[in-house]
Amino acid sequence: MPTFESVKFPSVTGAVLAGTVDIPDGEVRAWAVFCHGFTLGKNSAAAARISKALARHGIGVLRYDAAGLGSSTGDWSDTTFTTKVEDIRQAAAFMQSAGRPVSLLIGHSLGGAAVLGAVGALDEVKAVVTISAPYEPVHVVHLFDEAMDDVERQGVGEVTLGGKRLQIRKQLVEDLKRTDLTGCIRNLDRPLLVMHSPTDQTVGIDNAGEIFQAARHPKSFISLEGSTHLLTDRGQTDRAALLIAAWANQYLDTEDPLA
Questions:
Q1: CB 101 within 8 A of CB 28
Q2: Is 3-137+180-251 assigned to CATH 3.40.220.10?
Q3: What DSSP letter does each residue of 9-71 carry, written as one string?
Q4: 118 with 148: CB under 8 angstroms?
Q5: Where are the domains of the chain?
Q6: Is the CB of residue 83 less than 8 Å from the CB of residue 92?
Q7: Strand 156-161 versus strand 164-169 pairing type
Q8: Is the Cβ–Cβ distance between 159 and 168 less than 8 Å?
Q9: The whole model's pTM is what?
Q10: Mean pLDDT confidence for 83-106
């Protein structure tokens, strides 16, 4: 039975990020970092269930709360897409320092876009997985519509996302608008797995097509038909983890214990 370990490591914002490492029982085939969606956190259905399921397949995973969310310190409103990318690199450096070099990056929703932005600086990473990711990070700005007048006039506004009342600062909006991942995707130089549901009502399936088209081979696409954007059903997350583990087999040195 896989176990878990609670960890902490520094964010580039100066906050302390709280993480959970899901540890396989037996031989560890690889270590991964999972980056959660925009405001979701390490205990969201996608992050927690996929990480735990991957541990059963011999892949240990670090998932963590972004600054100001969950058990992490700091102010979420001080973060941007760029700090999200940089904190993935912080997470990988933390794992490296613990003797757990990261071979696999996995990102859900905006976290999927973030891993595409982060991997270029992580030579040790062998493969990348995106789940329900937007091609352009600016896609999430529509979630702020109710706050945009205040953001433009005052530099800050408030919006309710995922049941949380959060401040949206102009620096976040501007950072999202100027971020272009096309070059990062084209120059990935790593195997890429793009996973997306054709019925995703939050981030449309066309985003997966744009990511896939921009990427060079080796690349793969797997349709998560029947899944919602948040992958709230356990069957959805277990299936996603099984597919990730099967796809990653060719890039890892040892066999899946459940194969």
A1: no
A2: no
A3: EE-TTS-EEEEEEEE-SS---EEEEEE--TTT-TTSHHHHHHHHHHHHTTEEEEEEPPTTSTT
A4: no
A5: 3-137+180-251
A6: no
A7: antiparallel
A8: yes
A9: 0.95
A10: 98
